Amino acid sequence: MFGKHMNKKWIIYRKLFFSTFTISAFTVGGGYVIVPLMRKKFVEDLKWIEEKEMLDLMAIAQSSPGPIAVNASILMGYRMAGLPGVLTTVLGTVLPPFIILSIISSFYIAFRDNPYINAVLKGMQAGIAAVIIDVILSMGNSIVKEKESISVIVMFAAFIAAYFFHINVIYIILVCGTIGALTVLYCSKLNKK
Fold first, then answer.
1. Alpha helices in the chain (DSSP H)
2. Is the pLDDT of residue 91 over 90?
3. Cα–Cα distance, 108 to 180 (Å, whole number)
4. How far apart are CA 175 and CA 180, in angstroms?
5. How far apart are CA 169 and CA 131, in angstroms?
6. Which is nearest to 175 in space by CA: 154, 156, 192?
7. Using alpha carbons only, what angle is made at residue 53 by residues 191 and 24, rounded to the nearest 5 degrees?
8. Of 4, 28, 63, 117, which alpha carbon lies 20 to 30 A from 126's?
9. What 8-state DSSP symbol labels residue 64?
10. DSSP 174
C-alpha cells in the first residue's frame, strides 16, 4: 500500500518536473509565452485542472511579484502536489534558462556580432507576438463566453488604460484587483441571502 502511494507521487513529481522543464526549455520570449503552453499541457493534455482554474492561476501569477513563469509553476506545483510539487516545478522551470544562459554567456561576443543569429532572434520576436495574441484571444474568449459583464468591461478598460493612456501597469493591476475583490465580496453576500 505504502509503496503504491509513493510510486504514484513519484509519477506526479516526474510529470510535473518534465512538463515544466520542457515548457521552460522551449519557451522563448518571456513569461507571457509560457501561459498557452502551460494551458495546453495541464488543461488539455494532462487534464489536471479546468480552464477556469487555469485562468485564476494565471491571474494570480501575473499579479504576484516576480517572473510570471516561476509564479505560474509555483501555483501549479502547489495545486498538484503541495510543497514538494512547488520545489519540483520551480526546479523544472528555472533549470533550462540557467543552462542556456550559462552556455550563451560563454559565446556572447560571437553571438552578438553574428548577423544570422540576429536574424533568427528577429524572426523569433514575430513568433512571440503571435503566441501572445493567441493567449489574449483564447483567454479573452473564455471570459466573454462566461458572460460576466464586469470581467469583460475590466478587461477592455485595462487594455485602453495601458495602451492609449499609458497608465502604469502597477496602477491597473491594483485597480483591477480591487474591483475583483469587491465583486467577489458582493457576490458572496448575494449568495448568503
1. 2-25, 31-38, 51-63, 68-106, 108-113, 115-145, 149-163, 169-192
2. yes
3. 45
4. 9
5. 21
6. 154
7. 160
8. 63
9. S
10. H
User: In this structure, which amino acid lies at residue 177?
Assistant: G
Measured in degrees and rounded to the nearest 5, phi and psi for residue 5 equal -65, -45
Please state, in angstroms and rounded to a whole number, the distance separating the CA atoms of residues 82 and 140.
29
User: Looking at residue 19, what is its pLDDT?
Assistant: 93
CA-CA distance, 48 to 46, in Å (whole number)? Answer: 5
Residues 160-189, mean pLDDT to the nearest whole number = 88
Cell of 128: 512571440
Give just the sign of the alpha carbon dihedral 18, 69, 79, 81. positive
Q: Which three cell numbers stand for residue 46?
A: 494532462
Of the chain, the end-to-end C-alpha distance in Å amounts to 46
5 vs 9, 76, 98, 174, 183, CA distance in Å?
Answer: 6, 21, 33, 43, 41
Kindly state the average pLDDT of the residues 17-32: 84
To the nearest 10°, report the CA torsion of 67, 70, 74, 77: 150
How many C-beta neighbours within 10 Å does residue 111 have? 14
Contact of 19 with 92, CB cutoff 8 Å: yes
Three cell numbers written together for 57? 492561476
Which pTM was predicted?
A: 0.62
Q: What are phi and psi of 17, to 5 degrees?
A: -65, -50
Residue 20's closest CA among 84, 74, 98, 79?
A: 74
